[in-house]
Amino acid sequence: MSDLLHWATKHGVTRGVLGIAARRGNLQAQLMTLRPDRADDLRRIVAQMRDAGPVYVSPIGRVVTSHAGVKQVLSDDSFTTNRPQPPGFLGDLARRTTPPSIHPLERPSLLATNAPEHTRYRRLVTGVFTVRAVERLRQCTEAMAHDLLDELESVAARPVDLVERYCAPLPVNVIAEILGVPDEFRDDVLRFGTGAAPSLDMGITYRQHRQVEASLLAFEDWLDDHLAMLRRSPGADLMSQLVAATDDEGPLGERELKATAGLVLAAGFETTVNLLGNATHLLHDHAAQRAEVIGDGAVSGPGSWLNVVEEALRFDPPVLLTGRKATRGTEVDGSPVRAGETIATVLWAANRDPLVFENPDAFDVTRANAREHIAFSSGRHHCLGAALARMEGEVALRALHERFPDLKVLPGARRRSTRILRGYRTLPVLLRP
Length: 433
Known about the structure:
It comes from Nocardioides yefusunii. The protein is built from 18 helices and 14 strands. Strands 1-2-10-7-3 form a 5-stranded mixed beta sheet. Strands 4-14-11 form a 3-stranded antiparallel beta sheet. Strands 5-6 form a two-stranded antiparallel sheet. The chain has helices spanning 2-23, 27-33, 39-51, 67-75, 88-97, 117-126, 131-136, 138-153, 162-167, 169-179, 186-195, 206-232, 238-244, 254-285, 287-296, 305-315, 347-350, 386-403, and strands at residues 55-58, 61-64, 79-81, 160-161, 246-247, 250-251, 321-326, 330-332, 335-337, 342-346, 408-409, 414-415, 424-426, 428-430. A hairpin with an 8-residue loop joins strand 12 (414-415) and strand 13 (424-426). The chain has one domain (2-430): CATH 1.10.630.10. It is 53% helix and 10% strand.
């Protein structure tokens, strides 16, 4: 019964309110209930929001779509992370029925904490998850990519699902490497990650809610034994280093360590799967650009594989939007915002701001300022895994297209049902036509 109440107060009410508001023409509700495969509707909704002014205002909340406005909200101390709660009694009930969890949007996750707690927590985590540490993973990632591609050689002449055979196994193997997961448990981690994928969405169904909670609970139970093992026999992995990390206040607590592992799994796995699938589909649809980047071989700069990653993140980001709550009265793009109001920042829209990106609705791997996208958020909550995602994307896309330069996407690709996270559930391809 408490599980049903938890879903009803966290998602059921939100689902009902958004559905009614969308049917009545509310653009914010339409955006948040939009089917992931309706790209034309997404462009229409964002265009109508822009036409309404710098900040779209509705009874549900406020929405900012400009590059400057989104960056301001994500970086300004006037805004704090916020998971929307129903008002009054329902909000109190939601808080009382929320079980302790390593959910990425619940404390003590880095996504759900604010200064000063967030400052100390992030400092310890970033001391381990450094750019140098990520670069040390590059060689390992390259070996994993080539192992997966070797397996695909035997089926290169017949259709395969690239998400199942490449886009998902590679990131989960990298995450397993980061968390120090033994080989025999990597399939379990893949199952946990897949089950937790809808955890960033609002208004999910009761069935999805149970799937997410069961996956996170199973992962947390598994972490009990895993963290104990890392304390007994620490390895060279980043999780072992995080377990040992300490400052004047001591080491991270058990809940914080589990929440970090849960965030790495829920936010770091699915987003990279989506990046690889989205980028592969975009390159297929822009064959001349694909041929150019394959032939160029540049390490950096416009037209390089790294710039392909940046442009894919800009054009079709793995995360559609995120939200904040105003802690005091302020302004965004000249529009007043009152204390306590929620504001949605649409990363997809910011990445297509014509004031920043010339011809923003065109996919262009030679775009010189592609890296100015906000796909990784901004400010104190800028994605900790940004360097890792960039490295994985560059390695994976380069290796795939160098091995199979004539890769053909077949009919039948299906988008995921998640709305905040955007990517392909299945991507049928013929690797060697």
